[in-house]
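just leaving the lab so this will be short. what follows is a protein written twice so to speak, once as letters and once as structure tokens for the fold. can you read through it and tell me how you think this chain folds. anything you notice is useful, everything is just below:
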Amino acid sequence: MRNRISKRVKEKHQKAIRNVVKGLSRRVEVYKQSQKLICPNCNYDKFTDSSTGKCKYTPVQAIVKQQEWEAAGNVTVRYKYFLKGRCPVCNGRGYLETTRKTWIDALVTWDPSARGYGNSITYGPAGAEGSTIVALKTNPKHFDLFKNSTKIVVDGIDCKMSKPPLLRGLGAQAILVITAFTTLKQSIDSNEIIKDYT
């Protein structure tokens, strides 16, 4: 049986739908699991998950190592001698942590149970008010990104996932649905003028 809708018509409508989705979506910041690198300046204790408080190098070795590090084009302090106590490079954690984040486009719905009536946050004198639940709909290719994420920032508000991401639909028509809740209220803008009614 021959296909009733031509390929050209399908592509035209798919392009139109993609443009609508792109127009309705907002930028969402997704924080991936951070990378941890053992501190090059001090010894790391696996049992306490922190620094042992002792430097790996003598004062002369630390100066030479830092000069080599700076000669390679780096500007950060990576090697600095300390006798005992808190390491000046990792601040006593025993590792250096690199935060990784990415931006994606997603359809954002605040308070999805309100059936379209509560899709915004109200900003008043006391800060952000409104829903604490947000639903995101995006491309299924972001499934692994959300599965391993630690934090999501939607409209400047920190959120955490309340349940694992879900794929809804079949085949090429599937979408990824993420449900999250707010963890902190947005801080009041410093330019906001609060009237005194006294």
Remarks:
- The two ends are 79 Å apart (CA to CA).
- Helices lie at 7-24, 59-71, 143-147.
- The chain has two domains: 25-33+100-182, 41-88.
- Residues 41-88 form one domain.
